[in-house]
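Thread title: Can someone regenerate the structure for this chain?

I was given the following input by a collaborator and told the matching structure tokens would be attached. They weren't. Posting the sequence so someone can regenerate them.
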Amino acid sequence: MKAEELSGKQKAAVLMIMLGDEAASTIYRTLPERDVQDITREIAGMESVAPAVGAQIVEEYYRLSKTQEYMMMGGEDFARKLLIRAFGEVAAKDLLERVERVQEAKAGELDSLRKADPHQLAKFLEGEHPQTVALIVAHLDAKQAAALLTLLNGETRADVVRRLAEMRQFSSDMAQKVSVILNRKLQSIVKTRQRGYAGFKAVAEVLNRMDMEMSKSVLEQVEMADPKVALAIRNVMFTFEDLLATPEGSIRELLTQLDKKTLGMALKGASEDLKNHVFKCMSTRAADMLKEDMDILGPVRSRDVTLAQQEAVNVARTLEAQGKVTLKMEGDDEYVV
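Best answer:
Regenerated them for you:
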């Protein structure tokens, strides 16, 4: 039988035979049980392998592995240049297309992970390193991630949140290493293309969807381990514009504690909806006076507006911590701290 007539599993079986017992057993240890069974079955059914066929499959494996290696190192364009230099333009194009098809198929496998019940995921991840858990959580949407984090123990939860916040990008190589660990429990969850992860922003969205007390506890634990990370998360979790979703009673309390000059400067860069929300919480006379003060300010530097808005947010956070304000509308599904 010719190499091109063999199925993928048959080629894998031939490759194992050509590599020998020691190398094959090493590879076996990284494969899901189902793949091991299928390949072993194919090996048992083979009477012999023609040397020419074996050599052709080993060469094919080598080329595909080099293609994946080059793509991990520098992406598709980088890989194409090296492959053309090594194997020619036609072969390079074929190799990239084949690897790309595998990548797309692997990427689709994450759908089952995203649809999994958080309780099952939590049980599945028991005993795994926090970095492994963080990578899995990073693949989930905010609602599912929040549900999963809620089910983890407190220490692990805080560690995972801290790692998520610091995560900027994970490569296919990193995902592959994690996949090797998890493949014995779940059929391949690897994401083979490089993907960005908006650390602090994504974590803030997850924590906003968790129970407020638990979210607060997580942040406190993260703060003990790394105050800078905790502060960065808090800064993203609640912004000045989020006051639009704050109850009127809480806005009134905030206005009593906030310097009017700071408030006017902060509102200069606010949306019309937020301005109207704040004005509605003031008396007509007070609102008119504030509007006049804002007009007198004239054009202002965006840096000054940002500083004023941050000061307002800090005051709001302090009042919330004291239990004097609630930075969440009743009936809202999301939380802001």
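The chain has a mean pLDDT of 76.
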